[in-house]
């Protein structure tokens, strides 16, 4: 590997030499030829014989429209990188740019180095063409299989978020981010321009946005292409950029286009170098340059097909010749199109690229396809994690102390920040303090490079800081993804209800992880860690519209090898869980934890043991008799359900002393699944040991109740499982009213037990009625006083029930690692 | 009701009179007083006795920061509306604007008319205050309970999308859309400014965006407040607007502020009137005005609390005095704050608003809180629907003809468009033609009011049209929601994988519908109809990243009373289903249907009968013997699973003639649920009749398989249910390879049957092996030829199996209504 030389060099802007021009144009023609070849050709890659019908793929799948523009930019960046030794990542925003990026990686040699069967010869070309959008081959996007990619572009709108995520804490890195004018219409992209207020000139790298304005989407013009040029300029100025315009039409002389763009690119890169060269303490507002790259869609393709305008129109978006095999005329259009690139001049008889053209590319890791930042696992360093046990809350007896779990986590994260000053960041949409992680501001600030008015109101804002807050969940997720994909660590804290905003981003990232798990050269990256707080049960300021625990359900649809969901019931279990998450790789870890004062149940040793198992019996809570089957299992998952479940057991123990109750708590939701479904899953034998094969199980769960059924429908005791959870009831009210409205409250759980344990139904009608009355009284009190009844609000586990944590904590700790 | 007079009047811009000024300021003070009262006061609403600790709510929940600005704007709009008789809707973008909008609705009388217990007197004030953010009361947002609201503002970012949706086809309506500078950072809001390129000057109403730039979010400054004013101006110009700036600080003289804003508002409304007055054929580009309203956060609140800057800072966001009851000093701050509004001058001894102040409000329906457009059901007219039976495809025998289902639907929609020229629109992110609905362009165009270059490329674009396409699912959903909420009809067509982009918007809309179902004065509105095509099995150009059928799962978490999911297996069932959806009210209807050529199975009569039941036995497909239990049930849901299921049955019928197979198809997914869980649910007896109590059921399902288990886990035959569906495998490949990679293919279904019917396991080992071999051969063929094997690709149901549709079609049709 060639070492990456960092630079931010300025060069003299002067006309490119004829030889450079020839290389640029040669490279572009070669990349375009290879792109068209990938879309259409099954065989005969260099057309050594006249193009025949059988040479054309039977199903033409792929996208041409954006590709020549991407190739043009790639060629020119190659020249500049080589001249400046500037480490550069290429982010391909437009969807379906795959053929272009694959072509460029092939031309610079990376592709053959990565995939030894795709050799730099005619047979390699044949394979390169054949595999594209072909069964068993590669997709049309800049997928994980593509060397140099951190961004698929397949779902639209977070090219710039990813680019900025890559730039954070990489002060010497240039990220050339090509933005499609289609994706520019998406919400996430539209707001991501404002990322430039968050990037710091000295701490971070530079993002160069290049708006690829080719004018059309699938079947429509694009908005940004159909507003006056002055308006577009204003928009970019309004976004805080200094825009540079490059414009070429189908009539533009191509040599002239190369000359002009090369000069423009040098001007822009020099401007970036000038900004980077300012003194470190220079706080002059920065206006980063960006480029508007207005070129014809499908540039260099057939101008008309069947008499219809194709190049420079939406008809060039996908496969312009949808049926190249169907008529001799269409076949001829394709043959002429391919011939127009003059492949004979570009590749020798063996299919090797002309060496003078090949010289355009930089060498080694300076090739954008080989930049190590795009295979972030290569650069990943373990976090230095302080011993989370030292941040434990004191738990002399279960429920004897109170803590805000996320605040406790924040004290540990504060030291995580201190120990990892350049590869760990916390992302959140203006909610980090609201989620009670504000302890981290003892160690760092929120990074903010827009205007600053003074310390009276601008608390914890600084030019450089480890906390990134913008009121856009899309941005937080996109920045974090970009940061992780380039080999760093972080977490995203968010209100539970709003995390659905990034459902489709989660999809894409989880799919990326799944695919990279099976690509040997892709090195594992740090997990994507969520901390969902202000959760459905305790987001007191907010009403019905803020209630939704369904992100867990969404995540569970992704592959078991990727996703993990944890619901630690108290502060110490949260610490243990999060330590595990920050050590893990290639997962999506969803952790749901409350921020409100709540009882602590487990000492740190117990917490570690419990988290290591992922679920277990809390013997101190139950009333079962060792060696006998319990009469009923009360199971809980989530902090509020655990509180209510314990309170229910307390009521039962007092009123029905003979009842043998087993209390089970679940931290790691995946443990409920079958071991064949998920690597964390319990065997049936283990499950039956915990939940019995035939006793009623009353399960108090944090989210939508049917998820528990989905996870357990094949278990022997499925039909005795009765789940309470959120069922879309409640609004702004007291915490207890919330659980009551959803039948998750302690009184209702007692009723559930009575109703399901046959022996109780006759003898405890009075107790049952008492529970019904207590519920109504609680509701009445709440509606009159606007508060919970004190006995509910201030409830703690009675020490009399047994203050010590029994056999459950007795096994060896494995360091809080639940794997 | 006072009739709404339409206007677009111009008035002379002149200084407001002193009496008007007094009314404006009086109204504003009253609205602010009522807002503070709602947040803090449990009792003593007019402070007739000195404020006591017990008068203050024990739990202070609510948001003050945005409220005074909202109240200021409301007061000024009242004046202008009255003067111009201009029908106006107020859209409150900032979250938690509830206290302000409730206060204004109370002041103009609407609130007491709507809620007769909240009277216009002291007792009414007490109730008004008490109910806010109180158990059993109303939320902090501009919730459905708030008269005049179509937009909760509780989840952030679609104020402008909703506003434009309301404006479409309401040429005389002004929509004043207040945009919070927090929500302005979200993606959906950032792109929604571009809606102005889609609204038409003559066909549609006018949206007046008012950027409420109060500078702070929960704990941070806002981006748009911390960029130079020129940059903000450029941004708004870049968005296509003419910005007007209003700026007030804490030092601004309030009378002067009223004077200036009144003048500015008149100038802006005159400019709108001038634009509206241009000749109908004037195609000059329109630059609509917008207002930047820069005012202090928490304006008129306490400047400092506990020595910390409060008004004009993020500390004013929520409840500035978080513990007003805790110390005498804090109580005094609240008392002084409340006193500052001079409630004695605003309300008489009985608590009635001073009549001269009350005169500020317009009358009847011109009051923004009473505008009928904000209770869209009042204005809703049934669609005129052509008889969908006339668009039926011919089905001489099952599988004998081929159609693209969505194209057939498009032919019917074409006439729906023709018959409903002013209250029906089709929304889609650049995919309407891709989803094969392009037939509608025979009747209409895509509405496009940006630049137009000519017919050679701008096909089907026009200044006015029924199809709305922008490459933002957020915009499509937001526009459609706004259109529906104001009493019109429409549908959203989208690629299945990308619909997750609007997961959280769906949440909010479904929750809105749920709440309005229980608000008597809210009239039912048309359902939100999705058409998801380019679905997971047949989106051939796209790879793994485009595959996700999980929107169904997401929707299923919402209340059963709201959500409906249909998977019609062919063209005629799709027609019948969609006719039903467009007739329905208050639902979210999700319809998943393919666009690729696919066999038709049911004649229209059969389709209507089948859709009416929602699921049923296809006797022609199975081989069961009347009066005997089948050996196995093959069930399918979704078009591709149905094709594979039928092909599997065909293989079985040929190879295992003695096997008694029942074939069940499910159109209405909710039928699988228990009747106690969903109004469409089957009783256990019905379910057992169809699926037996103990025979193997092989279920081929369109989406994630565990959803079927979740729906059926309580059914008697649950443990014999074996579901195949999408399990996150596949990428760009052939259609058959996709089903094969996910074990949903015909061969695998046959193997599933053999493995689960005990009598077959021994005797049909050869057949089983043949299936294994056939799968491998198909895969090999696919990977070699890039195409499906012809027998798979061109498969049709063999007529020999029985071409007629038996007893299943014999019941009475109920007109395709599956309710």
TrEMBL record, chains A, B:
Q: Which UniProt keywords apply?
A: Lyase, Thiamine pyrophosphate
Q: Name one GO molecular function term.
A: magnesium ion binding
List the cofactors.
thiamine diphosphate
User: Which segments constitute the Xylulose 5-phosphate/Fructose 6-phosphate phosphoketolase N-terminal domain?
Assistant: 16-378
Enzyme Commission number: 4.1.2.-
Xylulose 5-phosphate/Fructose 6-phosphate phosphoketolase C-terminal domain mapped to chain residues = 595-797
Pfam families recorded: XFP, XFP_C, XFP_N
The biological process GO terms on file are: carbohydrate metabolic process
Q: What class of enzyme is it?
A: lyase
List, alphabetically, the InterPro entries matched.
Answer: Phosphoketolase, THDP-binding, Transketo_C/PFOR_II, Xul5P/Fru6P_PKetolase, Xul5P/Fru6P_PKetolase_C, Xul5P/Fru6P_PKetolase_CS, Xul5P/Fru6P_PKetolase_N, Xul5P/Fru6P_PKetolase_ThDP_BS
- Give the matching SUPFAM superfamilies: Thiamin diphosphate-binding fold (THDP-binding) (SSF52518)
- Identify its protein family: Belongs to the XFP family.
In its UniProt entry, what is this protein called?
Answer: Probable phosphoketolase
């Amino acid at each position: 590997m060639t070492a990456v030389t960092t630079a931010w060099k300025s060069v003299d802007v002067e006309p490119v030499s004829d030889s450079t021009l020839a290389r640029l144009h040669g490279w572009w023609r070669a990349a375009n030829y290879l792109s068209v070849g990938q879309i259409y050709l099954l065989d005969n890659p260099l057309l050594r014989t006249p193009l025949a019908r059988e040479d054309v793929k039977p199903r033409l799948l792929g996208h041409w429209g954006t590709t020549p523009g991407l190739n043009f930019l790639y060629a020119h960046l190659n020249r500049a990188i080589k001249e400046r030794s500037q480490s550069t990542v290429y982010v391909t925003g437009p969807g379906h740019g795959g053929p272009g990026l694959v072509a460029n990686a092939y031309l610079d040699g990376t592709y053959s180095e990565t995939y030894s069967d795709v050799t730099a010869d005619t047979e390699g070309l044949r394979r390169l063409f054949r595999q594209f959008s072909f069964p068993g081959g590669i997709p049309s996007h800049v997928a994980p299989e593509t060397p140099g990619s951190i961004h698929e572009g397949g779902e639209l709108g977070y090219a710039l978020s990813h680019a900025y995520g890559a730039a954070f804490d990489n002060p010497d890195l240039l990220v050339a981010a090509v933005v499609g004018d289609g994706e520019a219409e998406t919400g996430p992209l539209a707001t991501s321009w404002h990322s430039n207020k968050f990037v710091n000139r000295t701490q971070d790298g530079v993002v160069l946005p290049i708006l690829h304005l080719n004018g059309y989407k699938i079947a429509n013009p694009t908005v940004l292409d159909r507003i006056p040029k002055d308006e577009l300029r204003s928009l970019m100025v309004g976004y805080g950029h200094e825009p540079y315009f490059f414009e070429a039409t189908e009539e533009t002389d191509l040599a002239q286009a190369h000359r002009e763009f090369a000069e423009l690119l040098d001007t822009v890169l020099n401007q970036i170098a000038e900004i980077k060269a300012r003194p470190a303490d220079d706080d002059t507002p920065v206006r980063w340059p960006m480029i508007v790259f207005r070129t014809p869609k499908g540039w260099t393709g057939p101008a008309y097909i069947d008499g219809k305008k194709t190049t420079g129109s939406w008809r060039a978006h996908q496969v312009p010749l949808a049926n190249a095999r169907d008529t001799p005329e269409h076949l001829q259009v394709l043959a002429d199109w391919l011939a127009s690139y003059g492949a004979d001049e570009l590749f020798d008889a063996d299919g090797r690229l002309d060496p003078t053209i090949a010289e355009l590319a930089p060498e080694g890791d300076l090739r954008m396809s080989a930049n190590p930042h795009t295979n972030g696992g290569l650069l990943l360093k373990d976090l230095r994690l302080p011993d989370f046990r030292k941040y434990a809350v004191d738990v002399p007896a279960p429920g004897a102390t109170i803590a805000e779990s996320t605040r406790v986590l924040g004290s540990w994260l504060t030291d995580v920040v201190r120990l990892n000053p350049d590869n760990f960041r916390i992302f959140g949409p203006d909610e980090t303090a609201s989620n009670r992680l504000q302890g981290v501001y003892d160690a760092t600030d929120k990074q903010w490079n827009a205007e600053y008015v003074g310390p009276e109101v601008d608390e914890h804002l600084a030019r450089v800081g480890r906390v990134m807050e913008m009121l856009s969940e899309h941005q937080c997720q996109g920045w974090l993804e970009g940061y992780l994909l380039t080999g760093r660590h972080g977490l995203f804290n968010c209100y539970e209800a709003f995390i659905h905003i990034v459902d489709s981003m989660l999809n894409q990232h989880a799919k990326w992880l799944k695919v990279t798990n099976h690509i040997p050269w892709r090195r594992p990256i740090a997990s994507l860690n969520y901390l969902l707080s202000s959760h459905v049960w305790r987001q007191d300021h907010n009403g019905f519209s803020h209630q939704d625990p369904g992100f867990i359900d969404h995540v569970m649809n992704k592959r078991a090898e990727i996703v993990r969901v944890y619901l630690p019931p108290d502060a110490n279990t949260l610490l243990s869980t999060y330590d595990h998450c920050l050590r893990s790789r290639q997962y999506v870890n969803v952790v749901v934890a409350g921020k409100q004062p709540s009882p602590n149940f487990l000492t740190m040793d117990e917490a570690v043991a419990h988290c290591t198992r992922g679920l277990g019996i809390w013997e101190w809570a139950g009333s079962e008799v060792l060696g006998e089957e319990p009469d009923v299992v009360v199971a809980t998952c989530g902090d509020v359900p655990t509180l209510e479940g314990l309170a229910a057991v307390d009521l039962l123990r007092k009123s029905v002393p003979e009842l043998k109750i087993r209390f089970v708590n679940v931290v790691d939701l995946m443990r409920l699944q079958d071991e064949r479904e998920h690597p964390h899953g319990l065997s049936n034998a283990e499950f039956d040991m915990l939940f019995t094969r035939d006793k009623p199980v009353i399960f108090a769960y944090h989210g939508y109740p049917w998820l528990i059924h989905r996870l357990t429908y094949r278990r022997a005791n499925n039909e005795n499982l009765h789940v309470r959870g959120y069922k879309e009831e409640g609004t702004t009210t007291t915490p207890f009213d919330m659980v009551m409205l959803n039948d998750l409250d302690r009184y209702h759980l007692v009723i559930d037990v009575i109703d399901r344990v046959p022996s109780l139904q006759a003898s405890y009608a009075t107790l049952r009625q008492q529970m019904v009355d207590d519920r109504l009284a609680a509701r009445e009190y709440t509606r009159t006083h606007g508060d919970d009844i004190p006995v509910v609000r201030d409830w703690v586990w009675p020490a009399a029930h047994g203050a010590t944590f029994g056999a459950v904590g007795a096994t060896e700790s494995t360091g809080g690692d639940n794997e």
